[in-house]
Task: inverse folding
């Protein structure tokens, strides 16, 4: 910046010097012209030019030409105003000793009738000077002064002398110096103000950028863009004022946001649970809030919110979102499969015990008793599960799963029974999907029966296959649903899933046993993926308004393989040998 100011000052000085030189020359020329056209001066110069002998210095020092020239010089501040006759002899000069002498510079141009503007050095030093011819003009003054009419015929354009006006070079340079000095002072002031402003701006930028250099900022931006676009989690950054500053594509997709930057969470319509989490993090001196699981639209999200600060300065809040919808679905399926495997393990153990009994009877030759024992086993069913009417279910997966659920229900004082309309002739080809949906409905029904006001606590399950589809109906002895809650139980509520049941119960909303925050919406999603559905067939109610609690139905498409689709074993030959 100092170099720029210096260059500008030098350039101004050069331009100002040229302009001042030209201005001084133009001023000298204008003054010389004015004086040369003065009729009185023309008369005096013409008179002196016609004199046979040159006038003496004593005659000229107080003469009219000297007085007129000095008056002009004093008024204009010129270095000199010199008047000569047609021979170049000085008739007026600032130095009286120079009067009557020939001028030091060549007067030929002016005495020839031309004007001359030069920058030259004379007896008074270097100056910007202009020389203008003095012409004869009207001769009436000479005739009156000479007292005779015998003069030759006058030529008004005849040159009878010259006027030379000059301005000292020092005066021109002094004016330039004053201008340059003023410019230099202003430039230095501007330089000082600029330096101060630059320092303030640098400190402010350092504070805003946390002391990072431009190259570091560029690298940080590149790294941030790569990280935010590459991570599987959603990242949402909020400034201290609560407005969104950063939102990666994953966060926008999970929260359903469009152009979120610069807007608050309230403006974006973000779930109140997330807004509260951000507010808690901002208010918490430790800079964070507990992790929570929240339901947003159709997704189950695990949310971490933390306040960010550096050097005691609040930089805002960061929210990290993880989609756990698929994990939750897998967890529920794993729970169902675990329950079914437990049931199968019990069944295997019971089956092994029965085989030991049969083997013992056969080994001792008690064939008739073994036959009677096997007949009794066939009547009782494959395993001693506490499932009422378990023999109505022949499908092995359903049989084992309902047995396991019956054992869990029995521990809570609830009887699980199979409805009389149950008829499943095919075989399950997607048992984990069936057990996930059925397990959730049964768990909700058991919970409702436990909380219900009826003394007889039961849950009834009916299953019916129709081609490749499986229809399920689960009813219970609970107090049912309010009519207004039949749709709400399938709505995902943006609250902590872990405490959903308690929150709903405390709020007096939906039935505390049905719609536990995420289970029913999840199983409905599972059913609808392949064209099925889950719905409330009958809201039921407490006694004596209704005979039973709520009835939930489900239709699962493509989960059953009809028995006709399975390959048949080849018929044996008439002799009993294998075909």
Result:
């Amino acid at each position: 910046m100092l170099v720029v100011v210096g260059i500008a000052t030098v350039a101004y000085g050069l331009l100002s010097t040229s302009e001042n030189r030209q201005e001084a020359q133009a001023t000298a020329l204008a003054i010389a012209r004015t004086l040369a056209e003065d009729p009185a001066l023309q008369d005096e110069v013409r008179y002196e030019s016609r004199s046979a002998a040159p006038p003496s210095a004593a005659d000229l020092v107080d003469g009219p030409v000297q007085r007129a020239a000095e008056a002009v010089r004093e008024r204009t501040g010129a270095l000199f105003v010199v008047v000569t006759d047609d021979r170049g002899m000085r008739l007026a000069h600032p130095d009286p000793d120079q009067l009557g002498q020939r001028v030091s510079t060549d007067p030929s141009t002016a005495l020839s009738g031309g004007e001359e503007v030069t920058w030259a050095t004379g007896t008074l030093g270097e100056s910007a000077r202009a020389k203008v011819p003095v012409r004869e003009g009207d001769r009436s003054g000479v005739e009156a002064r000479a007292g005779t009419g015998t003069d030759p015929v006058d030529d008004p354009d005849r040159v009878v002398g010259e006027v030379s006006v000059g301005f000292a070079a020092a005066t021109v340079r002094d004016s330039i110096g004053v201008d340059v000095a003023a410019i230099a002072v202003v430039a230095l002031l501007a330089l000082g103000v600029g330096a101060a402003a630059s320092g303030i701006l640098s400190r402010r930028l350092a504070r805003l950028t946390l002391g990072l250099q431009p190259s570091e900022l560029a690298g940080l931006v590149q790294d941030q863009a790569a990280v935010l676009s590459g991570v599987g989690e959603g990242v949402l950054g909020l400034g201290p004022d609560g407005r969104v500053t950063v939102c990666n594509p994953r966060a926008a997709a999970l929260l359903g946001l469009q152009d979120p930057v610069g807007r608050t969470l309230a403006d974006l319509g973000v779930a109140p649970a997330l807004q509260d989490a951000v507010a808690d993090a901002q208010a918490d001196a430790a800079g964070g809030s507990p992790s929570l699981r929240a339901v947003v639209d159709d997704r189950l999200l695990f949310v971490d919110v933390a306040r960010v600060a550096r050097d005691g300065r609040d930089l805002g809040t960061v929210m990290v979102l993880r989609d756990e919808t698929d994990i939750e679905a897998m967890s529920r399926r794993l729970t169902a499969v675990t329950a079914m495997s437990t049931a199968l393990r019990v069944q295997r153990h019971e089956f092994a015990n029965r085989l030991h009994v049969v083997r013992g009877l056969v080994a001792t030759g008690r064939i008739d008793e073994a036959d009677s024992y096997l007949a009794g086993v066939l009547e009782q069913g494959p395993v001693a599960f506490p499932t009422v009417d378990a023999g109505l279910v022949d499908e092995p997966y359903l049989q084992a799963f309902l047995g396991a659920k019956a054992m869990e229900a029995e521990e809570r004082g609830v009887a699980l029974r199979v409805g009389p309309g149950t008829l499943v002739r095919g075989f399950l080809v997607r048992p984990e999907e069936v057990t996930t949906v059925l397990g959730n409905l049964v768990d909700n029904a058991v919970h409702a029966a436990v909380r219900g006001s009826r003394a007889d606590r039961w849950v009834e399950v009916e299953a019916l296959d129709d081609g490749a589809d499986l229809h399920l109906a689960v009813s219970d002895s609970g107090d049912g649903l309010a009519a207004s809650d039949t749709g709400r139980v399938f709505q995902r509520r943006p609250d902590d899933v872990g405490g959903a049941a308690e929150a709903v119960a405390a709020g007096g909303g939906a039935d505390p046993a049905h719609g536990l925050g995420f289970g029913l919406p999840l199983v409905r999603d599972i059913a609808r993926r392949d064209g099925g559905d889950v719905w409330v067939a009958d809201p039921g109610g407490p006694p004596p308004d209704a005979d039973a609690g709520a009835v939930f139905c489900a239709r699962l498409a493509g989960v059953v393989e009809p028995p006709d689709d399975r390959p048949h074993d080849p018929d044996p030959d008439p002799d009993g040998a294998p075909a």
